[in-house]
Structure to design on (1219 residues):
């Protein structure tokens, strides 16, 4: 069983994993970080999004072994010293969360966007989040929440 | 309107922090030591007799702890309304996806291997897929119902013949809507555990745990007192996880019993599309009579609905289709014939709107067609015929509150209706509207009562707990209950906690459907909070040696009115009360039953089924590309009369989410099948709107408190996607002059209609 | 998607030699893992059952993105789609590829999916494929037996089928120099505004000519309307050297449609695909003509393609 060294939410970890273990299952089952969700399991809904070296990816399409030597950020890694990330705050404030199943992934993708493009246009926000499906909110409050964080950072 | 501290305020959803941080525990996040993976073997045939089932090879697979078939169950038929299904097939399978056997193993791989080693001999039977085929003479019998009919509805009120005779224009047409899926992001999931004494615990993504327990008790032949259902955080339901308990849950329990270890079963998305309960497709013929003065004279409908292989909630859904939309307007004469028919397809079930969207599509489209025939603005036709407060509809709905007319005017003004209609055809732009009506609770669904019970407990350590069995599924009911409690008691919102639903602790509740939770659940919470307040102040009054009327409780402090005396914190009073009573908390009980004016409908489906009815109007502005048939929604308006909106932030969330689901229903969603097999059971080819597909949506709440609802609130959860398809269809007509009568209105269908019209 | 993906050993070669020796050893029992957005789906569906998975992401030679001294563009097979969509070096006619890459799937998929993967998966609706046909890309492949180069037009054999042999690795995509002022447009037709596979994909490329409405060079690539992406050569001929009027464009678009063999499936009917092919060919050229208008600020001379 191969050993992998992965940085998880800033903490380096060594684990032994089967080559066939998917990253989403590694995160959820081995690391117990169940904030990352599994839904379509085929890269079509985005609920399994994590940040791999800062980039938003579908963890259901990545083998855990592929992440050896890389860093992963999950939703659990967003808080700093007990304080919520501004995106988490904004999602709560703007009513951008209903059932919440898509929310961790949505927030992470938004973070990856703002890290790269601090002042995105609405079109850019929509393009970046097009791979994150939500069935409850109708997306509009999600866009508002992201815009508000971007505006506050100006 | 009375001024409230937090009712009517944009309060943050109390559950959001846990969801934003990944702390919320959903069904698949819930683990038990020794938990096994369960998988279900499903029929590959649409209709077949089961000749032989051999599980011996499957049992030998390493890591397999249990293999079950119907022989491992009491073989009791069940169903949400008609008892026509077994959790595991007995003798026959009736659709591709029907459950026959199941395995529990230490990992998914072993479970999958075991499944593949179950040997089943089938005798395929002829299958039918449409209601017409199923009702035809010589069609194979799916159950024992003549002509495969599940439910037949036939009533006439007044005389439609006379109504049509007195009309100046009579129109008749046929409309179809498709089988669409709720597409909640979290698939059905269940974790079940059974102990050696016959006690069962089930953790699941469920909307109605107490009702689910009733059904489970019947299937398992275990008394309800020995069954505990704990609701995990639900990742969306929209009706799909409500009263019809799909076989996955009892199967999970049977596996846990046989294996002697906890078992988890989780649906894949293929299984969701093939075997969970989605929206009833319907073919509806409507005949509408209208006079030149704009009044409707008669309406006749014929509904042919495809139930799929088992009844589920179908009978109530088709009953809704038959009666609800009609109650928007004054119709002197109505006639309805409906057939809900078994076919060898996935059984249908409840999906937000519960049969109402299907008829709204037809009726609201035909109203526009009729308006054109008499050369009237369809807005004015709606205004002319709109039902009003104080009236009773042709089906017996008593409108204790109704602002439909105001919603129509507001929608027209906000959207610029009068300036835009019929004016922008050259650019392919159009505007369309549709009205909506829905219930706040439905007395027809549960025979024994409609209502709710809640407790509000003020604990000795301070802190207020709300205990209810009505389920949070993401819509925000926990927040609404917390607001109602905080407002009524007079304590800060942060002090209030709504406890999770657990049948061991929660009072019996009918569950989250029929838009009943804020209205009925909220009413119970309100009564419980009032009771708790009264008890607390009684005690405090005795302590302070004044009469209770002299006290007020505001922002958590009990003080004598108009006095400088600082009084005491409510926590202090609660603590002292518990010391004086052997440790008891202040316990407020609120038990609410709907007034006796709310009735179960009679055999002709006539009856005032709800305490309050909600109304509204949606307007869509579209751009249609004549070359491709593609529709872009430029702007959407949704104007609502849902009484007092307890939390407008969450209310808007319901509107926006519902409208976007409605856009999917209108323009892009359909479960496609060939000979009973799902062709597009994945999110690539079953397309729900992405963030790039949604227009700006403006929500307006026209608030007038309802006399019965808590703080005047009425239902809002489902109505939001009821008229959406009709509004869009009407807008398309305004834009390019083609009338689409089949959903979804794909670019292909629109282009074909444009071409046909141009020939 | 049951989630069980079979059993396999995982290799992560650090060089091309190492990869080739693995390929030599395991041949068709192995699968190449690049971005994984196609392979992992196939594994989950049980469509492929390799016993060895070879992760090529650490092979430096496969990641280049540079112009050569001959003015060609050399793209490593591992360049990911997101990188392609924003690559500054994809100017002029080559921008066609960037446009196509930006339309694949979602941001998450593009962050992993690679150019080489999109090509080797050879889906009839693959977004980069018809643009690559238009750009007359050349593919460099390497196997234990040596190297070879192939014109992309010869590479696709059918849905999911290519000329790539079981021990072969696609290493680079070479885009030949295009004449100055070449302009390309990729049009993708789908029901939703994101995520969907193309129902029809049309790539058009044009350059040269004595005035803004005439082209010396025209190339048209069509995707999702046949078992493999195709060049609509008869349509191309009809547009070379003539003034592009509405009628001429319409006739050429009809010729393009004649070269298609679309099927009816869950995404769309055959007649509708033919209609959209015609429509997108016309739209694509209208956009190029817009660019070429003297007053549009993007005249024939504006950019170098090489």
């Amino acid at each position: 069983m191969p050993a992998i060294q992965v940085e998880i939410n800033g903490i380096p970890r060594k684990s032994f994993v089967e080559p066939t273990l998917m990253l989403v299952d590694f995160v959820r089952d081995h690391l117990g970080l169940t904030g990352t969700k599994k839904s379509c399991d085929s890269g079509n809904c985005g609920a399994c999004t994590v940040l791999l070296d800062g980039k938003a990816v579908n963890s259901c399409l990545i083998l855990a072994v592929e992440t050896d030597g890389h860093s992963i950020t999950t939703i659990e890694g967003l808080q700093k010293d007990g304080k919520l990330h501004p995106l988490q705050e904004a999602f709560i404030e703007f009513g951008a969360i209903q059932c919440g199943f898509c929310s961790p992934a949505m927030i992470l993708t938004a973070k990856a966007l703002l890290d790269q493009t601090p002042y995105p246009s609405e079109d850019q926000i929509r393009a970046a989040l097009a791979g994150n499906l939500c069935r409850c909110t109708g997306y509009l409050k999600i866009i508002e929440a992201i815009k508000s964080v971007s505006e506050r950072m100006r | 309107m009375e001024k409230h501290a937090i009712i009517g305020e944009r309060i943050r959803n109390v559950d959001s922090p846990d969801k934003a941080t990944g702390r919320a525990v959903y069904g698949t996040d819930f683990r038990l030591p020794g938990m096994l993976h369960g998988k279900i073997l499903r029929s590959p045939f649409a209709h077949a007799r089961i000749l032989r089932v051999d599980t011996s090879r499957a049992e030998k697979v390493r890591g397999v702890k249990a293999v079950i078939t119907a022989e491992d169950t009491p073989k009791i038929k069940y169903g949400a309304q008609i008892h026509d299904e077994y959790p595991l097939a007995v003798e026959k399978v009736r659709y591709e996806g029907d459950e026959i056997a199941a395995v529990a193993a230490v990992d998914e791989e072993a479970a999958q291997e075991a499944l593949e080693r179950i040997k089943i001999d089938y005798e395929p039977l002829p299958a039918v897929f449409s209601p017409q085929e199923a009702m035809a003479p010589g069609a194979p019998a799916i159950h024992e119902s003549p002509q495969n009919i599940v439910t037949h509805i036939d009533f006439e009120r007044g005389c439609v013949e006379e109504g049509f005779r007195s009309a100046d224009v009579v129109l008749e047409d046929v409309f179809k809507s498709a089988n669409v899926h709720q597409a909640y992001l979290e698939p059905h999931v269940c974790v079940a555990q059974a102990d050696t004494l016959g006690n069962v615990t089930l953790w699941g993504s469920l909307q109605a745990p107490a009702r689910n327990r009733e059904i489970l008790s019947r299937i398992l032949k275990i008394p309800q007192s020995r069954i505990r259902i704990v609701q995990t955080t639900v990742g969306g339901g929209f009706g799909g996880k409500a009263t019809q308990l799909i076989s996955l849950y009892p199967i999970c329990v049977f596996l846990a019993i046989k294996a002697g270890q906890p078992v988890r079963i989780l649906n894949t998305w293929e299984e969701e599309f093939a075997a969970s309960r989605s929206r009833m497709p319907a073919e509806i013929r409507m005949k509408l009579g209208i006079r030149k003065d704009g009044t409707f004279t008669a309406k006749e409908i014929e509904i042919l609905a495809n139930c799929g292989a088992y009844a589920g909630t179908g009978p109530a859904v088709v009953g809704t289709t038959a009666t609800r939309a009609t109650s928007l307007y004054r119709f002197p004469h109505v006639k309805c014939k409906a057939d809900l028919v078994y076919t060898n397809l996935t059984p249908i079930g409840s999906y937000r709107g519960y049969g109402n969207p299907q008829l709204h599509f037809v009726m609201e489209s035909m109203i526009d067609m009729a308006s054109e025939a008499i050369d009237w603005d369809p807005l004015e036709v709606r205004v002319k015929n709109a039902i009003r407060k104080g009236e009773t509809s042709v089906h017996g709905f008593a409108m204790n509150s109704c602002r439909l007319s105001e919603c129509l005017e507001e929608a027209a003004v906000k959207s610029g209706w009068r300036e835009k209609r019929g004016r922008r055809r050259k650019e392919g732009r159009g505007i369309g509207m549709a009205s909506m009506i829905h219930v706040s609770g439905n007395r027809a669904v549960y025979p024994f009562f409609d209502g709710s019970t809640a407790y509000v407990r003020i604990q000795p350590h301070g802190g207020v707990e709300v205990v209810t069995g009505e389920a949070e599924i993401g819509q925000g009911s926990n927040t609404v209950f917390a607001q109602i409690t905080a407002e009524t008691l007079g304590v800060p919102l942060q002090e209030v906690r709504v406890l999770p639903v657990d049948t061991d602790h929660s009072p019996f509740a009918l569950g989250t459907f029929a838009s009943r939770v804020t209205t009925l659940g909220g009413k119970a919470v309100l009564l419980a909070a009032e009771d708790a307040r009264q008890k607390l102040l009684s005690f405090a009054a005795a302590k302070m040696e004044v009469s209770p009327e002299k006290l007020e409780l505001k922002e958590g402090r009990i003080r004598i009115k108009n006095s400088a005396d600082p009084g005491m914190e409510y926590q202090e009073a609660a603590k002292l009360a518990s010391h004086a009573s052997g440790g008891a908390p202040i316990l407020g009980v609120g038990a609410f039953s709907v007034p006796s004016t709310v009735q179960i409908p009679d055999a002709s489906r006539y009856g005032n089924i709800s305490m309050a009815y909600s109304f509204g109007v949606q307007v869509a502005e579209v751009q249609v590309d004549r070359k491709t048939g593609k529709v872009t929604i430029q702007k959407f308006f949704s104007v609502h009369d849902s009484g007092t909106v307890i939390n407008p932030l969450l209310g808007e969330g319901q509107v926006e989410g519902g409208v976007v689901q409605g856009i999917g229903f209108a323009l892009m969603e359909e479960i496609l099948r060939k000979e009973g097999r799902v062709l597009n059971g994945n999110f690539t080819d079953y397309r729900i709107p992405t963030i790039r597909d949604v227009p700006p949506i403006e929500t307006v709440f026209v608030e007038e408190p309802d006399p019965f609802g808590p703080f005047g609130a009425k239902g809002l959860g489902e109505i939001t996607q009821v008229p959406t398809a009709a509004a869009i269809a009407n807008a398309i007509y305004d834009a390019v002059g083609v009338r689409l009568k089949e959903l979804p209105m794909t670019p292909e269908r629109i282009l074909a209609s444009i071409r046909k019209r141009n020939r | 998607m049951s989630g069980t993906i079979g059993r396999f050993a995982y290799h992560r070669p650090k060089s091309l030699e190492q990869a080739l020796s693995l390929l030599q050893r395991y041949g068709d029992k192995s699968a190449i893992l690049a971005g994984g957005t196609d392979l992992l789906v196939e594994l989950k569906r049980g469509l492929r059952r390799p016993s060895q998975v070879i992760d090529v992401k650490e092979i430096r030679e496969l990641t280049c993105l540079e112009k050569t001294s001959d003015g060609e563009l050399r793209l490593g097979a591992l360049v990911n789609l997101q990188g392609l969509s924003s690559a500054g070096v994809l100017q002029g006619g080559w921008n066609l590829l960037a446009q196509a890459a930006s339309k694949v799937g979602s941001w998450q998929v593009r962050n992993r999916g690679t150019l080489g993967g999109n090509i080797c998966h050879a889906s009839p609706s693959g977004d980069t494929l018809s643009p690559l046909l238009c750009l007359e890309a050349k593919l460099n492949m390497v196997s234990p037996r040596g190297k070879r180069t192939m014109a992309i037009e010869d590479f696709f054999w059918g849905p999911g089928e290519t000329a790539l042999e079981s021990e072969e690795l696609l290493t680079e995509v070479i885009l030949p120099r295009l004449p100055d002022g070449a302009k390309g447009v990729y049009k993708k037709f789908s029901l939703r505004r994101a995520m969907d596979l193309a129902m029809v994909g049309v790539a058009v490329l044009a350059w040269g000519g004595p005035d803004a409405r005439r082209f010396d060079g025209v190339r048209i690539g069509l995707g999702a309307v046949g078992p493999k992406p195709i060049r609509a050569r008869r349509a191309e001929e009809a547009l070379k050297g003539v003034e592009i009027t509405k009628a001429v464009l319409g006739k050429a678009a009809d010729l393009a449609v004649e070269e298609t063999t679309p099927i009816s499936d869950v995404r769309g009917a055959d007649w509708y695909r033919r209609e959209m092919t015609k429509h997108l060919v016309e739209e694509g050229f209208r956009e190029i003509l817009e660019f070429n208008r003297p007053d549009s600020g993007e005249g024939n001379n504006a950019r170098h393609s090489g």
